Amino acid sequence: MRHVLAPRRFIAILVLSLIAIRPALPGEKVYVGSKGTPAKRVAMDQIDHSNWDALLRRYVDPDGKVDYKRWKANAADRRTLHQYLAQLSTADPTLKSAKAAKLAFWINAYNSVTIAGILQQYPTSSIRNHTARLFGYNIWHDLLLTVGGRPYSLDEIEHQVLRKMGEPRIHFAIVCAAKGCPRLLAEAYTTEQLDNQLEVNAKDFFARRTHFRFDAARGSFQLSSILKWFGSDFGANDKAMLKRIAAFLPTQQSRKAAAKGQGSVSYLDYDWDLNDQR
Question: Would you put residue 57 in left (φ > 0), alpha (ψ -120 to 50) or beta?
Fold first, then answer.
């Protein structure tokens, strides 16, 4: 016998599918996930990230580039993504969970909502095409994931949730769909693997010339603009920041100089082009 969806469930899935394929209108608030009911909410360490993990492994290459074209063409996998976002909505931030579980949850939330937002607008060449400053749709403010009954924007997840958790390595994990971002890890962040995943991605980040350069003769560091924008998360000044990132740097000379807090600091231009496999 063919399985028949209950009317309400069918409508919910239909709405999610429409969100996945229709570009946002200027000034429109776009909600992903689901409101759910308080009785069905769970702690963040009870959220299963396996669907997100499977999607990342299918559409993200080892360099962190995303096959948006193929993902957008697969209606079943777009639905799976929105079903995962609905699953995130069942988490209750007020329930007790380990810090690692909360960090993994919110990193995955940020990355999956960003991907959903890009797929909604695709084809596009940059997320900055969808970040209107005064009037119109701004993906960082107007794309909202409901968690525990309340909506969170990407901007709020980054600045009001993740940054306040005191783990600066999040800046090597959350990805705003730009080439200047850290590599999008082709797997979900998990409670058990979080520390290792953050460490691996931090080292990958500084191993790329687009993010880090060191001139030993001049004693000068050129860093990604991410360290300019969020340097305070790594220390009160350049010396403290260099000491904090020293362990992630790719060469012995750069690690030694940074560990002493020695060297001038300047910043590289940021590449806002889409992290698209095309």
Answer: alpha
User: Measured between alpha carbons, how far apart are the two ends of the chain, in Å?
Assistant: 42
**Amino acid, single-letter form, for residue 165:** M
DSSP 208-242: STTTEEEETTTTEEEE-HHHHHSGGGT-SSHHHHH
Say how far residue 109 (Cα) sits from the centre of its chain. 7
- Please tell me whether residue 149 adopts helix, strand or coil conformation: coil
What's the predicted TM-score (pTM) here?
0.91
Omega before residue 123 within 30° of 0, cis: yes
Give the pLDDT confidence of 230-273 residue by residue, as tens digits.
Answer: 999 999 999 999 999 999 999 999 999 999 999 999 999 999 99
CA atoms within 13 A on the CB side of 225: 9
Instruction: Report the C-alpha gap between 68 and 170 in whole angstroms.
Output: 24
